[in-house]
Amino acid sequence: MRQLQQEMAGLSTAEEFLDHFAIAYERRVVDVNRLHILKRFHDYLDAEGEFDGFDEEACRAICSGLLLRAYLDFVESDAITEKVFKVHQDQANRYVPLTSLGLPAADAAG
Predict the structure, then answer these.
(1) Could you give the dihedral angle defined by the CA atoms of residues 15, 18, 11 and 62, in that order, rounded to the nearest 10 degrees?
(2) How far apart are CA 74 and CA 83, in angstroms?
(3) Sequence-separated (6 or more) residues with CB below 8 Å from residue 47
(4) Higher-confidence position of 27 and 76
(5) pLDDT at residue 24 above 90?
């Protein structure tokens, strides 16, 4: 796993990760969702836990599968639906009534 960790430490873009693991991708999906894909991949890696006891080849296969899964999440859905980042998780709370700004409702209308 140490070699794979070193290789991944040198990667920074979603495209680099996808190319490294030889995962075919649609540019339009990555252009819109690159940070979401990387964050989801990171989340999947965290959920997977330690890779102790796996040889290098098995670790590569696991990482490749998790990255493919993260990418496919955004092929089949979108960032708002997937809610990877806090800003999207808070979308449900985005409505702010004018009265909460200290304006009386009658003044807000006109």
Answers:
(1) 160
(2) 11
(3) none
(4) 27
(5) yes
Domain-embedded: residue 21? yes
**Which DSSP letter does residue 10 get?**
T
Of 86 and 29, the one with more pLDDT: 29
Least Cα distance to 38 among 6, 70, 8, 61 occurs for: 70
H helical segments located in the chain: 2-9, 14-20, 27-48, 56-75, 79-82, 86-89, 105-109
Range 102-110 average pLDDT: 58
Expressed as residue numbers, the domain containing 8 is: 2-89
Residue 98 lies in a domain: no
For 99, the token pair is: 């009265």
C-alpha span between 42 and 39 (Å, rounded) = 5
Q: Rounded to an integer, what distance in angstroms lies between the CA atom of residue 59 and that of residue 88?
A: 31
Q: pLDDT (tens digit, 9 = 90+) per residue, 71-90?
A: 999 998 777 666 665 554 55
